[in-house]
Amino acid sequence: MISGRQALAQIEQTIEKARQQEAKCELAYTRATEEVGRLRIQRTEAFRELARLKLDAIRQDQVVGQLDAAERQALSVLNSRQEALRQLNERRRQAEERVRQAEAQRQAAVDALEQALAQVEALRRDVEARVSTDPEWITARARVAEITGQAQQAEKKAVQAETDRDEKRRPYEADPLFMYLWKRKFGTAAYRAGPFTRYMDRIVARVVGYDKARANYALLNEIPERLREHARRIIDDLRTVRSRLTALERQALVAAGIPPLEEKAAQGRETVEESDRRLTEARSALTKLDRTHDASVLEGDAPYREAVALLAAADEREDLNQLYEEALRTPTPQDEAIVRRIQATDVMINRALRQAVDAHRQLKETAQRRATIEQEWEELRSQGYDTPYGTFGNEAALGNVLGGVLTGAIGGAILGQVLRGGFHHGPSPWDSGFGGGIPFPQPGGFGTGGSFGGGGFRTGGSF
After folding, report:
1. Distance, CA of 387 to CA of 318 (rounded, Å)
2. Strand (E) positions, 86-195?
3. Are 55 and 320 in contact (CB under 8 A)?
């Protein structure tokens, strides 16, 4: 069994491993694409040598000049791409470091808050043990228990009466003549009608036995309302006696010196909230850079494609193809050496292209897995799964699933199921109502993903 914070720390380690894999895949992709560019330039150089060897001076100057221009333009694009990727990766590295620092700061803040709460809880338990033998507290507590029982019984009776009312009034409401007279308030001081209408209504009333039915129907509606009002009065009484009990408990806590400890815990809570805010900002900045990177590298890598297209267009000129075919048909020793270089370069280009495609695929898959794990991490943290008062009983399964997601053998949805299925929220200092409970709500995401009560509200009593 591991704590919620240990589980989410394990997920963070998996995210870090995914980013390391991503960096390796990107390095392999970058090297492969740079190799393709280098080989393309090498191929262009071979064609340039072939042109100098086989063409006359006029055609040679024209072809070589065009090849030189294409090479310069391609090199410029490739160099710009390399520098842009370097700067982007450096910004991502810095953003990742800021996230790590923010996570460490939040962890330290949570540890400090947990220690402060432990001091509050220890003193509260000590005071509770002493106060529980005080006659005044015993009397107040017994009164709370007594009225609590009364409130529960009153609520039960009110609910039962409301259920009976809904069931028993159906026959009355199904009778259109009875409901006609009821809605006109026949038989009451509020009834208004002319002589003829009064005459006809009296006839209808005798036919349906309205006088007796009206009394029964009115009583049927009044009883639940009276019982509900009685339940409200008892609940008001319960609030009063609970407030008295809370005041006794709070007085004992203050006398024991709890206010400074609560103030320290409140400051710790504020520090946790601030560290949460900084971590959210750091992660948001990293996410934006991840999207920029994905749009640049994973969704096309336009500068690289542009450079390769420039070189390919230069190499595939019709006169160069004719030159190459002629060199193959009537080789000289010099022609043959250049042709072999071009053929060998073509083989290496194809190999480098396959490596680039494979590395790009792995890079994209790794980035998607990392994003899936990060999404689960963020959702679970926002729901309070990183509380020090929660545990996971399926740590072995969690480790296996994280490893499977990292390799692509398991989908991200399984991770969410394992995390939610294995989590158990244990007791926390906020669960006790002695003396009004902890005088401030839980930090967001610290235990339940929200807070109990409102700012400064005390829950009241140990009921």
Report:
1. 70
2. none
3. no
Instruction: Please answer whether residues 128 and 429 qualify as being in contact, where contact means their C-beta atoms are separated by less than 8 angstroms.
Output: no
**Token pair belonging to 211:** 């006088």
Tell which residue, 149, 151, 147, has the closest CA to residue 241: 147
DSSP one-letter code for 425: E
CA 330 to chain centre: 69
The residue behind tokens 């299925």 is 421
Residue ranges of domains in the chain: 8-122+259-372, 130-258
List the Cα angle 437/439/444 in 5-degree steps.
100
- Taking the C-alpha atoms of residue 438 and residue 121, their distance in angstroms, rounded to an integer, is 9
φ, ψ at 289 (rounded to 5°): -65, -35
CB 25 within 8 A of CB 294: no
Both tokens of residue 408? 């692509």
Cα 272 from Cα 445, distance rounded (Å): 10
- Cβ atoms 363, 29 nearer than 8 A: yes
Q: Are 390 and 3 in contact (CB under 8 A)?
A: yes
For 81-116, the DSSP string reads HHHHHHHHHHHHHHHHHHHHHHHHHHHHHHHHHHHH
Residue entry with tokens 């007279």: 181
Burial-class residue 159 by CB neighbours within 10 Å (0-12, 13-18, 19+): middle
Q: Among 435, 440, 443, 444, which Cα is nearest to 454's? A: 440
Architecture of domain 8-122+259-372: Up-down Bundle (1.20)
69-112 pLDDT per residue, tens: 655 666 666 666 667 777 878 888 899 899 889 988 988 998 89
**How far apart (Å, rounded) are the C-alpha atoms in residues 154 and 165?**
16
Q: Could you tell me which of 357, 136, 129, 101 has the C-alpha nearest to residue 245?
A: 136
- Entry pTM: 0.61
Residue-wise pLDDT tens digits, 3-60: 777 777 888 888 888 888 888 888 888 888 888 878 877 877 777 776 666 544 334 4
DSSP 435: G
What is the rounded distance in angstroms from the CA atom of residue 322 to the CA atom of residue 328? 10
Strands lying side by side in the sheet with 2-3: 2-3, 390-392, 423-425
Three-class SS of residue 390? strand
